[in-house]
Amino acid sequence: MTATRIDGKSFAAGLRERIASHVASLKADHGLVPGLAVVIVGEDPASQVYVRNKAKQTEEVGMASFKHELPADTSEADLLALIDKLNNDPAVHGILVQMPVPDQINPKAVINAIEPAKDVDCFTPVNVGKLTIGDPAPVSCTPLGCLMLLRDSLGDLTGKHAVIIGRSNLVGKPMAQLLLRDNCTVTIAHSRTADLPGVCRQADIVVAAVGRAEMVKGDWIKPGATVIDVGINRIDAPERGEGKTRLVGDVAFEEASEKAAAITPVPGGVGPMTIACLLANTVTAMCLANGIEPPRDLTA
Ligand code: GUN
Fold first, then answer.
1. What per-residue confidence (pLDDT) applies to 299?
2. What structural domains and CATH numbers belong to the chain?
3. What count of other Cβ atoms lies within 10 Å of the Cβ of residue 1?
């Protein structure tokens, strides 16, 4: 079997088009523009690239982008003061503080300071709790993107056995909650799971989110399974020339493609979905803040 490629890049482009169309209607009908504030502290090059892309895509769909670039020696108190200002700014409907933050700042203090209604990352304990009990709340962007791709690829997920490899707060745990909501039987596996390949071979759906390059091998995949690869790992690529590198996922793509029915590539799979879902969460947050029914095609 050669797996179908799940084209996250094209799905995300379609989602951004839907977002742009909702943004235009909200402006025309209500005179409202969704606003996303992105805060970055310090000069980590990877974080700077993410933040630049977030701001660019926010503007491309017609939303307002508020970028705050703070020096690496910013104090926790100054960052909390900025968050307080953004919490109280009616033009800001979503707030994202790019992680990681420098050592002098406690990330938990930062997350706890964000108004849950504006927490478009779904990092605050209030929103994590709501996700767990099934109350409406922003949904973590990467797991939401994975869920959208799975629904698009498989339709109804009821009864599927999903094995999530990785137990992070950012991906593994919220992914499990979303798949449970969609009536999957969910296993969260991790580095200490006994017979991880054997557990993985039971899966109709594999979500790999461990951050280890090509760890999931072809013979871990049940024939006909759907594989979602959240990993983005940079590895040496001497075949491309001296000092060259390339991006790979947590799944050995070629091997797994021989077994799976469908698989996300890296790059071009889950990655592009994350920012599109962030924009979708911001539109939803703006609607809820203004008593407007949020568009149904943007949320889980
Ligand atoms: N750093 C890496 N990924 C993320 C993310 O999804 N949200 C935030 N706030 N920071 C990140």
1. 82
2. 31-121 (3.40.50.10860), 141-272 (3.40.50.720)
3. 11
Helix (H, G, I), strand (E, B) or coil at 59: helix
Question: How far is 56 from 63, CA to CA, in rounded Å?
Answer: 10
The atom of ligand 1 lying closest to the CA of 96 is 9
Atom of ligand 1 nearest to the CA of 274: 6
DSSP annotation of 102:
P
Mean pLDDT by 10 residues, the chain (300 residues): 95 98 98 98 95 97 98 98 98 97 98 98 97 93 98 98 98 98 97 97 98 98 98 95 96 98 98 97 97 91
140 C-alpha to center of ligand 1: Å?
10
Exposed / middle / buried, residue 184 (Cβ in 10 Å: 0-12, 13-18, 19+): buried
Tokens of 166: 């990785």
